[in-house]
Write a structure and sequence with these properties.
The structure is a single chain. The chain is of the alpha/beta class. The protein has a domain of about 190 residues: Dihydrodipicolinate Reductase, domain 2 (2-Layer Sandwich), CATH 3.30.360. About 30% of the residues lie in helices and about 20% in strands. It contains 13 helices and 15 strands. It has a nine-stranded mixed β-sheet.
Length: about 425
């Protein structure tokens, strides 16, 4: 299960992706091979701990090979697959071995965020379709490179924003876009705060089961600390973006869907954040961010705010709609009760996010949360974090994907990679 299973040049997969057409320019993607109606798609899984385990369950019958830099996670996941399928399942500590396998049709990337771009781009270059956990990227630059790679190599890439495959969220967006609440004015997005107890813990040698150098990958060199890895990576800037990219990636994605902004984004972003004075994590414990769109609509994101309920609230001139993972409600109540008509907006419908990906691997139709959509939604998250970290308003051009009039802020669109890793 070692990352030294066999020698591979770390630069062997690294190629420069050429700029290609936008999100919906390629409605049909060239298959690596043709699938029979009942033929099993064989998946490789890159990252099988925590959320990776959750993403493995829907694919247990498809799983052909697993990868994780922690042998404890890897061995547990291998046993689960072998117990279900009654056949041997191989495991690796280096994802590039998975991509070398000719019997693997698609990969599921559930690594920490700082690995999403490299794993996805290399998979596209290797001819694999990709299901990548949200947020799609760690930076805006990475996200665009991921879109370019998917388009260049004609790969299906589904972003794991599974709320798109929930009837409640789709209905809320259909009602909003059909004008049921009148002119859309504001979208309220509520996400949880961060308030972990306890003091920092000292750095220590990494445990023997963890290939810590591979875990870091392109991230900056840091001493091992148990509070920076596995689930807790989400709360350090080197690897993620706090609750903004954790829950915000879900709810801002739905806000974008309701706005009809899957190929666009805000033009101004500003906010304020509070940081825990004794917290051992780096990201905000709470924040408020205002996003302004060119059509005058605003998104007000509140992290840990009592006045903004967890979920998404669409506020219009004639009513409002609230939706979360449990319910959809409206004011007036009849807005959500009256069924859609043939003349209303009907959006892409999916009952199962993972199954939608498998279906698209076979049909070559775009998935419900295509890589461009995932990139645009992640960009909204990243812009919010940039504004919070700089403590000032930033202006964004969603067409050129550039921060306007602020050279310092523009530098945050991309981050350097630790040698020898590079996007090219």
């Amino acid at each position: 299960m070692s990352s030294t299973h066999r020698t591979i040049d770390r630069r062997s997969f690294l190629k420069t992706s050429a700029a290609v057409a936008g999100a919906f320019a390629a409605p049909y993607f060239v298959p690596q091979r043709a699938f029979g109606a009942n033929e099993r798609i064989v998946t490789g899984h890159i990252g099988v701990g925590g959320r990776g385990t959750q993403n493995l369950r829907p694919f247990l019958e498809n799983a052909g090979v697993l990868c994780d830099v922690d042998t404890r996670h890897l061995e547990k996941a291998i046993k689960a697959v072998e117990d279900l399928n009654g056949r041997k399942c191989e495991g690796y500590g280096d994802y590039r071995h998975v991509l070398d396998r000719k019997d693997i049709d698609a990969v599921v990337v559930t690594t920490p965020d700082h690995w999403h771009a490299l794993a996805t781009i290399h998979a596209c270059q290797a001819g694999k379709d990709v299901y990548c956990e949200k947020p799609l990227s760690l930076t805006i630059f990475e996200g665009r490179k991921m879109v370019e790679a998917a388009r260049k190599h004609q790969r299906i890439v589904q972003t794991g924003s599974q709320q798109r495959s929930d009837d409640r969220f789709r209905l809320a967006c259909e009602l909003v876009r059909s004008g049921r609440i009148g002119k859309l004015q504001t979208v309220l997005v509520g996400i949880p705060d961060v308030n972990f107890a306890g003091p920092p813990v000292p750095d220590s040698p990494p445990p023997p089961e963890l290939d810590y150098d591979m875990w870091l990958g392109p991230a900056p060199e840091r001493p091992y600390n148990e509070k920076r890895v596995h689930y807790l990576f989400r709360f350090f800037w080197d690897y993620s973006g706090g609750q903004m990219t954790n829950f915000g990636a879900h709810h801002l994605d739905i806000a974008q869907w309701g706005l009809g902004a899957d190929d666009s984004g805000p033009v101004e972003i500003e906010g304020t954040a509070k940081f825990h004075p004794e917290g051992w994590y780096e990201v905000p414990m709470s924040c408020h961010v205002t996003y302004r769109y060119a059509n005058g609509v605003t998104i007000e994101l509140g992290q840990g705010e009592k006045d903004i309920p967890g979920g998404i609230t669409f506020v219009g001139s004639e009513g409002r709609i609230f939706v979360d993972r449990r319910k959809i409600t409206s004011t007036p109540e009849e807005i959500a009760r009256q069924p859609l008509t043939a003349g209303d907006v009907h959006l892409y419908a999916s009952k199962d996010h993972h199954q939608n990906f498998l279906e698209c691997v076979k049909t070559r139709k775009p998935p419900i949360c295509d890589v461009e959509i995932g990139h645009r939604s992640a960009t909204v998250c990243h812009l919010g974090n940039i504004a919070l970290r700089l403590g000032r308003k930033i202006r964004w051009d969603p067409k050129t994907e550039q921060i306007v009039g602020d050279q310092d802020a523009a530098g945050w669109v991309q981050r350097p990679y630790r040698s020898p890793w590079t996007l090219g």
